[in-house]
Amino acid sequence: MDRIAEKIHGHDSSSSSSDSDDDKFDAVKTKIFRLFGREKPVHRVLGCGKPADVLLWRNKKISSGILSGTTIVWVLFELLEYHLVALLCHISIFSLGILFLWSNASTFINKSPPEIAEIVLPEKCVLEVASALRIEINRALAVLRDIASGRDVKKFLTVS
């Protein structure tokens, strides 16, 4: 019984070589310095990439930028009760104004106007999406009509 307890605790008295004792000491030492007895470092658990660096504050500029950005968004939405649609509209109006000023001022400062990429969507793709959307809207309206007319009494009572 003592032998089993010694093996569990890592104090095997049968091996007397100094190399094995050093290995055991290193293993015990690494377990002491790791929080909650983990075997892998936190950086490896988080994926060893940029997200792990950001979460562990290894790149302080990016981490502080993300923290300040999320704080600004939180202040806008929670404290000032700003809405997402209004924010998107204001951002698009601001960017449109900047592009307008840049394109008009480019003739005075001898710079090239901004190059805005032209997006070309194939007609077939747009028609397929519109057709699928039309079918789903018609299905939803048919269900609503059945509920409102009283044909499906169970759903009518559930909705009421």
UniProtKB/TrEMBL annotation:
Keywords: Endoplasmic reticulum, Membrane, Transmembrane, Transmembrane helix
Subcellular location: Endoplasmic reticulum membrane
Main subcellular localisation: endoplasmic reticulum
TM ranges: 62-77, 83-102
Membrane topology (UniProt): Multi-pass membrane protein
Residue ranges annotated for the Reticulon domain, each copy included: 51-160
Keyword hit for Lyase: no
Keyword Zinc attached: no
Compositional bias annotation for Basic and acidic residues: 1-12
Region described as Disordered: 1-23
Database matches in PANTHER family: RETICULON (PTHR10994), RETICULON-LIKE PROTEIN (PTHR10994:SF151)
Protein name per the record: Reticulon-like protein
